[in-house]
Predict the structure.
Amino acid sequence: MSVPLTELSAGAAFAGHAARIREHIVAMCSGPEGGHLGGSMSLVEILTALYFGVLRVDPAAPADPDRDVFLLSKGHGAIALYATLAERGFLDPAELAGFGTWGSRLMAHPVRAVPGVELPTGSLGHGLALGAGFALAARLDGRPGRAYVVMGDGELQEGSVWESAMGAAAQRLDNLVAVVDRNGLQISGRTEDVCALEPLAQRWRTFGWSVREAPGHDLDALVGALGSTPWEPGRPSLLLADTTKGAGLPFVAGAVHSHFATLSVRQLARARAALAAGTGGGGRD
Ligand SMILES: Cc1ncc(C[n+]2csc(CCOP(=O)(O)OP(=O)(O)O)c2C)c(N)n1
Ligand SMILES: [Mg+2]
């Protein structure tokens, strides 16, 4: 007898989606152009929780004026987004095989030609301002839609993030939700060595946001937090998701060199074996 979805935990209900998204990501990184492996793997549960447990979006009505809006501000995680959109029904999974090839609309950073992508992103530091605009527009139009923005932690070194944070709080945009993929790494090293962010939760609170922290690969925790906003009326919500860059792959998890990879046939086989065995939760360097 099948168990009604409502009786399953998010982890039990959505783990299969997360596993298939990881498989798609490693396959895309084995293509001719390679891919942003580490920061895509760290996003998997965040995107799975959002697309399967939180966002009010419908592949059959992508322009519904009452939909929630999602922006992947760290647009270099595009392959995780493409895999999630395919898993959620916005894209034919077969299209993923063309990632990075001539003529494909699936490029290294997302563009609006891809169903489900609201705006092009990838120049870091812009997504939060755009999300704030969507949230403000929904409120002015009397629409129920919320805006969700996912940023990288290194991305927070962009000054425009803090300008947007300040503006969103001033506008009391409690239909705006931001998630930080707090994997502790950026291109050139640990965020705390390059340009320290801590005390990060405190900084966001000081900017007027309601802040929570969650284990970023725990679907139950993510759906529980992201599905219950606003946490404080009148304040935008910021979730610090504690993640591991390259999560799922023991040979790169937590390593700065996981940022970009072009996987050889042998490496792809090794990655698939690790995913199948579930051995790569990984710690940090
Ligand atoms: C404005 C801007 N500057 C530089 C880059 C190049 N770049 C791409 S990814 C990246 C590192 C970002 O680190 P983080 O936000 O922590 O991402 P993650 O660790 O999740 O990959 C940089 C500097 C960019 N995309 N945009
Ligand atoms: Mg990072």
Notes: The mean pLDDT is 95.
